[in-house]
What we know:
Shape: globular
Strand order of the largest sheet: 1-2
Order of helices and strands: HHHHHHHHHHHEEHH
Strand content: under 5%
Amino acid sequence: MTGRVRLLLASSHPGPTVVVTVLATVIAAAVGHPVWLVVLVALTVFAGQLSIGLANDWIDADRDRVVGRSDKPVAQGLIPVTTVRAAAYGTAGVAVLLSITLGPVAAVAHLVLVAAGWAYDAGLKRTAWSVAPFVVAFGLLPVVAVSAGPDPQLPAWWAVATGAVFGVAIHCTNVLPDLVDDAATGVRGFPHRLGLHRAGVLAFVSLVVAAGLVLGGQLVGTAVHPGSAVVGGVPVGVVLAVVGAVVVLVLAGVGIRLVLTGPPTRTLFRLVIASSLVLVVELGFAGARLVA
Length: 292
């Protein structure tokens, strides 16, 4: 049983699943939700992300076998497709039930988010619209985290825009290392049609735009979370946003250089994950500015 659980977790795209869950959790905590509600948001988003990741490996099982994906337990025959499929449906059911407990606004937002992920897995990944589920899902993530609870609030526009733009970066860099495998199995999504160089540059430019949106939101926002620390009279959130923008700019520069001078590797996706962690810290200190 322990081995099966481990294989299921490996089939759920654990890296992105954890990053998305952490991002939602940080936003929920930053806007001042009580601990129980923050935990509920985390569990709900985690269940939804598990279902999306598991569905991806179940639906792509045959294609992954053809190209010899060594990182996919299903493709290696280590776990039956039926088991992964059952886990995908099961975690989706849990996500639906947990979503209902978040309140009407957050519930609808999260259900649409999960539906977007499943739509990508089910076929949108093969079309020019493959980026749309990422824009929708990441754009709705702040809505889920901020609006959860009996008295729903809406997130600031710049928080939604940051998520949507970040979704573009995630999609493009996650696909780049698989361009050859995807071409062999007939997958031609949005990044494939752009090509390696243009998709890679777009991904890292999107990261810079996301960092700029967070910085802009900190500078123009008027609300400050009670007890916020200040540095030289400036809220620490603003200081971190400036530092974070510089860090993301550097990471984006490294990423663009790698895209233009070498073959696509998972290093590109790791750079995006690193940038996402920087953005998570910034959003964590944004506090009440995250609320519209």
